[in-house]
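Backbone shapes recur. Consider a single case.
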Amino acid sequence: MRARRVIAAASVAALGVLSLAACGKSAPNVAVYVGDTTYSVNQVDAIYADVQAKYGDAVRREAGQAGATPSPEQLRSEVTRQDVVDLLVSLDLGKRVAAAKNIQVPDEITPQQLEQNLRVPATTEYAKLWGEWIDLLQVLNQQLPPAELSDDSLMAVYNALKDTGAIQGGMSVTDVRQAFGDGGFVRSATALSAALEEEAGRVDVSINPRFRAVGVPSVVSTGQSLVFYSLPYINKAGPVTDISTPEPLPSSDAPNPDPDAEGTAS
């Protein structure tokens, strides 16, 4: 698939957060603190378990219609507990940014629109959160002033997409700049990343050490389908290895999963 077609639209960002141990917040039953709001490990486990149970049921039904018996591996969704944490934190911070700027967030994206590409039943809480997150991403990317385009931001998006297999590897910065055109989606994503990072610092975000540094859930349109992924942390010197001191990560525009538009969710 050609690079320019893959980058029809994208949304990627990442947040710098402190580990619970680093900031003195270390309750083992808390997954994340976002200001005065806490997300418990039980809450994360429940959302994760819901995905796995309903995904397994869907696979069994489909296999049964074909007279097949799925393997234990086939019954497991690729969604992880880390994915759940990423989504909860990003949604919380994004809502705070929108509220502070008096931005109204429309309710447009439904879990049903995302179900096929997300590969998670629409009835799960995880799919519902994803629909809410994309609504929020779209409006924030429209309202925040675009940032300057940098090689770091371009390559952060490129490398994350490359890891999913959605774009060819081995491209130089020059190649990526050519493939990404004016890089408008990277500019808006970098602005989003900065806004979320600033909010994370303002309200004090802390993560349980059992989870790695939080990456913002991301999605890219290939023109025929959506690719869901999370962008890893980077800073000016390269990848961050200390989860207690991550730097903000550049990102890109949210897609427009309009069921009537080409390459969107259905």
Observations:
- Residues 1-14, 232-266 have pLDDT under 50 and may be disordered.
